[in-house]
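[audit] Reproducing an earlier prediction to check determinism. Same input, same settings, fresh worker. If the tokens differ from the archived copy the diff job will pick it up downstream; this log only records the rerun itself.
[audit] input (716 residues):
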Amino acid sequence: MVVAIVAAVLALLVVVAIILVVFAVRNRSKGSYASVKKTVRSIDSVGVSSSLSHAESAKSTASAAQTTTAAANPADSLKPRFTAISVLGAAIFGALSVRLWGLQVLSGGSYAREAAENMYANVSTPAPRGIIYDADGVALVTNKSSYTVLSDPEVADDRDILLRLSSVLGVPYNVVRQRIQDSTSGAQSQRVVASDVRLRDIAFISEHAEAFPGVTVQTRTVRDYPYGALAAQTLGYTGSVAEEQLETLSEGRDVELGDDVGQTGIEQAYDDLLAGDHGVRRVIADAHGNVVEVVSETQPTRGSDLYLCIRGPVQYACDRMLAQTIAPNGVIGEGTGTGGAIVVMDVRDGGIIAMANYPTFDPSLFVGGITQDVWDVYSSSESYNPMLNRAISGQYPAASTYKAFTSLAALENGICTTTTTWNCTGSWDGWNTGQPQRCWNHSGHGELDLYGGIVNSCDVVFYSIAKEFYDRGQSGQISSTAMQDYLAKFRLDQLTGIDISGESAGRIPGPEWKAEYFRNRPEEAQWQGGDSTNMSIGQGYVLVTPIELAVAYGAIATGNIMKPHLLKEVRNADGEVVVTYQSEVVATPEASQADLELVRNALNGVTTENAGIAEAFRENGVDPATICSKTGTAEVAGQNDYAWFACYGPKDDPRYVVTCVVEQGGGGSSTAAPLGAQAMGAVMSYEAGTLADMGYIAGFGGESVEISVTSGGRTD
């Protein structure tokens, strides 16, 4: 391009120079024409008079007149003009020659390359995504052949064809037109109108091909989910990449509008690995952009395969038991609770064995683009948000599951010892307000030590511990946030760092947090003693997620906080392991072995000394003596109580931790504990080789009935 510009400038300079020369020559010619020749008479005969002399004189005069006439000939005056025209013509031909030289010699190679580029075009072919397997190689997400309707670009200008496509495919007219007008995949590329099209629609288009000129059908691969909604929130789904997403993709990632990319879950977190490399067709196009010939073609390369820590049979058991508890007939409100989550984690390496949520969704509905009707169902309040991954994003009051950590905080800060006792009468008014706080057991537990306080989940014991923290903090004996600081060692207010997006952090409330939260209501911004007593039993402003609680209870079991993860390893197209996830110890909370053993023994007592809980474990083939657990019943304003349960085992050789929550499920002992026992039984049976069943999990259909709020008060 630069060379062409230089050549043009040189040609222009040459033309200007030639024109200047022409004008100079012309001016010089005009100066010579101003001098006119005059005749001069002979002086030899001056004064001589004769007839001869008169005759000669007349002859001489005639001759002079002829000479004067000859000098004034018009042809002579046109010669300079002819000369100027000749010079100008030469200048023009010279300029053209210079320009032609520039085009053919200096810029010839560049123009030849551009011409070739205009003639040839590269058209991308989407690559199949990698397969997602469970830990044993059972495919959880695969690919299947699907019919895709494609269109030539010029179809966007034919209203009749657009209307026919819209009618047959059930896609709005404007959407069809917009998809065909999208040229980001290349001017000569066919545009994707719809993916995973029904066979009957394909048959109609094929049988009426004359009504759909420029429209073709191609077989491509799309995501397939052999087990339906199994682990749907964890695995995620794919969808066509949006224009704004192109700006956030990894550097070097080759993505075009119309390509499928991971939108949530594992599909999104490991999209770069799952996505393959595009195939390329080298084609020759005519002046109108129509493909005339395919010169060469490179086949697409499938993406890498992922192996997760998830054990399919355990995941299936957890998904199924949640659905049967909350919506036994597929209708929320006909069972117990409105939603829930279960997390099963290997405490040794942080691997997530199962992560179940209910209500859930069918990811196959997102293949080819979700319809507005389905999206409306999933977005309605009656469906209780099936897209939410409650296991990592649900924030709930921790209730009595918090008491294990409050106990360790009290022991480590010298608030109590193994011999300290308290007397529970069923109510407590340590602040002398005249408005006592009640224990869940209104009849009282009598005299209890810390072990008994944990086993019986006695609120009065923990109210007393919280008051001691508050009083000593006010007097300066310990930090005013000593209890909060110790709870934070178990990272109950931080993201766990699990390897999928959408995680929320819990909350450990304190004076600073409250001052900021109520900054516009200063009369409520002061941290009060009642805030401390509420926090000690996991109520008040406390929030926690199921995954945070699983990690924290895993730390009680082993002493280490592990980073939870879903990925086990990555294998390439040849089946070779190219990436293996390395487990990571995030922190080791400060706690003496004696204090840990006291709390562990007390958690074991919760299982063995509560007849209902012990029976639930026995029914699922688990010896209660090997399990440490804690129930919780969270009070939520305007709703039924939330049921909690956390457990780990075996006690002396911890391998697995389970946490579960049921929104508006009532008491932890009655609702959540049976679920936790089933989940622990499933993972133990899987380990023993006696659990291998897997089946189809149906997505929630959005049906629900009104639930009445009938909380009868906490029961644990």
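[audit] rerun output stored. Observation attached for the diff report: Residues 430 and 464 are 7 Å apart (CA to CA).
[audit] end
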